[in-house]
Design a protein that fits this description.
Elements (H helix, E strand, L loop, with lengths): L3 E6 L2 H17 L5 E6 L2 H4 L17 H8 L5 E5 L11 E5 L8 E5 L14 E3 L3 H10 L4 E3 L5 H9 L5 E5 H6 L8 E2 L14 E6 L3 H7 L5 H17 L7 E8 L2 E9 L6 E9 L3 H28 L1
Parallel strand pairs: 1-2, 1-3, 6-7, 6-8
Antiparallel strand pairs: 3-10, 4-10, 5-8, 5-9, 11-12, 12-13
Helix pairs in contact: 8-9
Bound molecules: ligand PBG.
EC number: 2.5.1.61
Enzyme class: transferase
Family: Belongs to the HMBS family.
Amino acid sequence: MPAIRIATRASKLAIAQTKLVCNMLREVNADLQIELVEISTRGDRDKSDFLYKSSSSVGFFTSELEKALLENAADVAVHSFKDLPTAITPGLAITAVPKRVSPADALICSDGSTSIKGLKPGAVVGTSSVRRIAQLKHLRPDVHARPCRGNVDTRIGKLRGGQYDALILAHAGLIRMGKEDEISAVLPFEDFLPAPAQGALAIQTRSDDKTANVIVSQIDDNGARLRAELERRILARLHGGCSIPLGALAMVEGDAVSISAMIADPAGEPFVREQIRAQRQDAEAAADELAESLLANGGAEILARFNRDRE
Ligand SMILES: NCc1[nH]cc(CCC(=O)O)c1CC(=O)O
């Protein structure tokens, strides 16, 4: 059998994620030959602080990987699902969403605080995500959010160097990089909703590549896919794929699903958060209903203002 070529970003986290995927693929296919194709993306090269406000950030971490698939320079691309725009690229398919690790956000503090409420007055928190900033300011109007980019090690280095009092990062990324010891708190969903599909991976192939599709589809996890797709459905209804101050989390328990979502001004107010429950077969309609309800109850104004301010 010829080697399957897997495109990955070259960051430590991306490589760690891709190795996990390689292991999953080998578990279902013991003698699979794998070749890694490392690709640098705009997101890896651009270190500007205000990335997440810019509408040109669509596909920032993913479009070069998609291009490699379309040009037949690779057969499989491994993405952090939350980085993938909601608009699907013709010719490509998400063939697997493997079992998801934690969707939560995590707090790393330099002063021993173990919650957002416990941060010292006026603390400086490093994050460039408008979703994290909005929820942080909602809970603690007195703290300051300051942009923080770079890979996980760079960010933690800046924290230890005294540039910030705390950081908010994806729990999943910290787990995958073996940095769980650094975590001060995993943020509870009641306070803090994750980005749509955070913690999930999207494994993409060419739609017509039967060989790759047969192999890759074996590591798909039904529940992980359903949850991530419901969350992204809300994102798609509220926006195309650029980064907006939206959190969404779907939970599946047996035949029932519950979906929570929030949209807020990055200043922390106005802030709208709602939840809906439904039977699994009605889950898509429930996600649409939740998105409409958010928009009707203040979300439309929040979004209009956000989009105006970032132009
Ligand atoms: N855009 C950055 C990004 N994309 C995916 C992850 C973490 C892993 C994941 O959410 O699956 C991160 C870093 C972070 O948010 O802290």
